Structures are given as C-alpha cells and as structure tokens.
Amino acid sequence: MRKMGILSLVFLVLPLTAFTPSGTSSLDTSHVVKIDASTREERTEITSLGVAIEEIHDTYIVGICHSNQLKDLKAKGFVFETTSTPAFLLDFPPGDGAFHNLQELESEMKALVQAHSNLATISSIGKSVEGRDLWMVRISGTQTKEGEKAGILFLGTHHAREHLSTEVPFFLMKHLLEKYGKDEKITRLVNEREIWIIPLVNPDGTDYDITDKPYKWWRKNRQGGGAQSIYGVDLNRNYGYKWGGQGAGSDPSSETYRGTSAFSEPETQAVKAFIDTHPNITTLLSYHTFSELILYPWGYTYDSIEDQQAFKVHETMAQAMGRMTGYKPQQSSDLYITSGDTTDWSFGEHKIISFTFELYPASIWDGGFYPPASVIEGVTKNNIPPALYLIEYADNPYRVITTGQPRDFLTVSDIWPPKPQ
Ligand code: 0X9
Ligand code: ZN
User: Fold this and answer.
1) Per-residue pLDDT, 91
2) Is the pLDDT of residue 229 over 80?
C-alpha cells in the first residue's frame, strides 16, 4: 500500500482529541488511530478488539474506533497515536450533492426501472431495523421467470459511511439498462443472465451518517432499541458462517460488533433469505470502501479455500479484475481475520464465487469515506469492466480455469469507453 509521509506528521502534531458525532448514539466519539502492527496476527487482534482497520502499511495500520477500544489497546500493550479527524474529512467536499441520499437513490432507481420496464423490476427484499425498504433491482433481458438463467448478485454499502459503495452498483445498474440495445456485449450479457443489484444494504446507517453536518463516520446499522442505547451491529460480522470467531467484536461499543447471534439483524436476514431462495446465483460481489483491494475467501482463517478448483477460480478472477482496475487482489485474511463477513457465508454456505471490493481511495488522506464528488465518475467507470467480467462468467465461473485464458478476455481498453453508437 501507499506510504504517506504526511501521515506521521499529522499524528505527531495533533493532540489526542476526537471527533464527536452529533446525534443520539451512546457511543462516545470516533477516533482515527494509528497503531504499530506489522503482521496479520497483530492486525487480527486489533480488529478483534473492535477497531475498524482501514489502511495497512508495513509497520502500522490506520483504523477507527471509540474510547473503549483505546483502553483495550493500551491494556494489550499496543503502541498507538490518535488524532482529531481533520475537518476536510468530516464532510463531502463541495459538490457532495452528486452522491445519492436515500430519497434520491430510491426515486432514481424507480424512474430507471420505469424507463426500462422491459428489462428491470424493483422490489424490496425486506426492511431495515428502522423499517426502511431494502431495494433491489432485477435486470434480465428477456424477463423470463426467476431462476431460469445464471444469476449474479451485486451488493453495496454494508458499512454506512462507505458512500462510494452505493454509487458503484447504482451506476452499474444505470449503465446496463441504458446501454442495452446499443452496446452489443451488454445486450448479450443482459439477455443471458439474471442480474440483481442491491445498492444499499444499510440504509439506516447511511441516513444517520449524512443527516446533519459534520458527518458521523458511522459504520454499523442502527440496532439498539432506543435513542440513548443505539450501538449498532457491524453487518459484515453478522453473517452465519463461522460467526462468533476471531476478528469481530463482542462488545456492543466495538466498531466490529458482531451482534447477539448470527443473522440477528434484519438487513443480513433479508440478504440471507434472498440468496437462500435463489440457487441460480453463482457469483457475488460486495462493494466496500476503501483501500483499492479485491478480496476473496477465506476471511475467517489464514488457510486458503480447501477446494483447489474453487480457490483457483477466485484467485484467477481476482487477478484479472486487479489488472482491470489497478486494485490489489488478495485473500481477505491476508489483511486480518474476520468472522461473519458476507463472502465467507456466500461461499462457505452456498459455494457462490464471492468477492469483496475495497474501492477508491487508497488512503484515508485521499478522502477516506468522503472523497470529493468529482471522483464518482472515474471510480464508477473503472468498476464497469470487472462487473461485466463477472457477469460474463456467471454461467460457469469455473470456465476461467478450465479453458485456460478466459474466453473473451477483457481489459479496461476493451470495454471502456464504450464504442460510439
Ligand atoms: O473489515 C471489513 O469488514 C472489510 N473492510 S472495511 O474497511 N470496508 O470495513 C473487509 C472484510 C474482508 N475480510 C477480511 N479481511 N477477513
Ligand atoms: Zn466496509
């Protein structure tokens, strides 16, 4: 990962103060913390203590946590420095209007579906803790019955503050619908596949994060049952494969709190129910930010996927998508162990070929969770080629290893910009 000279300067100069979110959470404050750590084992311990690790460097990590975790880090002997959150990271910079809030996303998705009613339908897969719909758009060219074609699922924003991870799947949906009938490849892919896109798995958290300024750096959902006791559950620690193991917090104040049981949360229950009832899903991509990585199972163990073929498919695809995007492909647990993440469950339980993308930027100092709106276009376009690649192979992802070079190998320049119509 990129080394930031400026980082140590900032940490040395600023006193130990913290950004205090306005609002009703009982969690005290969010600290940006730089912790000395050079091995994945140390990083696993740090995330098990409840710190959300956002950047990994050779000798340290940069993470986010609350005061309880600072106490625990100290007790365990970790060497760390905290900093106040720089003002420029507390808001979408000028032009943040280009990011979609909940109402904009919902109305734009509905308008899009209406404009392409021969290709798309919209439905809610369930409700969030606070009763918001979890919207899903289904795209398929010949609108056959569900389950008749190979399926692929794209998921956005399990973590509230990771706003680009809503924009990327939303743009993908728009791109597929608007290019259908104009771009030969997209027309074929949309005709031959069943594509589902859920751009916002955590609407409550996202709404809380961006309501009133400065923004709150909120990660989890809004579980808790009352204004003073909202603690939130990390939805990417709440899935049911090896739930409760290393790399997830058991303390509700933790940034990585796993919840009271596997699938305790309505948001993960809804995703589970959808996947459980759609066995034609072969491939899944869950978007997060940030760090510019392409991750694949396992996350819960340092061991590789035991089934050599399945391992090779993930590795080959991650490498190909890495070449398309410039993101770094690797096994999830190379970063640190997590238990209960989406892709361990979708692969572990259903053998779905599964990826987590950590989108732009590479570093918190390049905008972190709140990069300028000017980057949306570049990031969303950069993520079209890997999405099309996965859609292409969704009929049988194992083709990437059985036929040598992927059929119809794609690079960014093959696909983007789209050929003039
Ligand atoms: O920790 C997470 O849930 C993901 N990173 S994020 O910064 N978006 O929170 C990464 C999950 C990948 N799994 C493992 N590292 N095991
Ligand atoms: Zn995330």
Assistant:
1) 52
2) no
Higher-pLDDT residue of 123, 3:
123
Query: Which of 68, 90, 112 finishes a domain?
Result: 90
Atom 7, ligand 1: residue with shortest CA distance: 54
Asked whether residue 420 is assigned to any structural domain, the reply reads no
Taking residues 239-248, what's their average pLDDT?
97
Mutate which of 40, 220, 246, 358 for ligand 1 pocket (most atoms within 8 A of beta carbon):
358
Q: Which atom of ligand 1 is nearest to the CA of 358?
A: 8
206 lines ligand 1 (CB under 6 A): no
How many independent structural domains does the chain possess?
2
Decide if pLDDT at 414 tops 80. no
Q: Which residues contact 303 (CB under 8 A, 6 or more apart)?
A: none
- Measured from the alpha carbon of residue 166, the closest ligand is 2
Surrounding residues of ion ligand 2, Cβ less than 5 A? 159, 162, 288
Domain range spanning residue 47? 2-90
Of residues 193 and 90, more confidently modeled = 193
Phi and psi, residue 385, nearest 5°: -55, -50
In eight-state DSSP terms, residue 192 is H
C-alpha pair distances (Å), 291 with each of 71, 201, 276, 362, 365: 27, 20, 30, 4, 11
Confidence (pTM): 0.90
Q: Is 358 an annotated catalytic residue?
A: yes
338 CA to centre of ligand 1 in angstroms: 7
Name the more confident of 405 and 134. Answer: 134
User: In the listed set 58, 90, 122, which residue is the last one of a domain according to the structure?
Assistant: 90
Q: Do the Cβ atoms of 332 and 286 come closer than 8 Å?
A: no
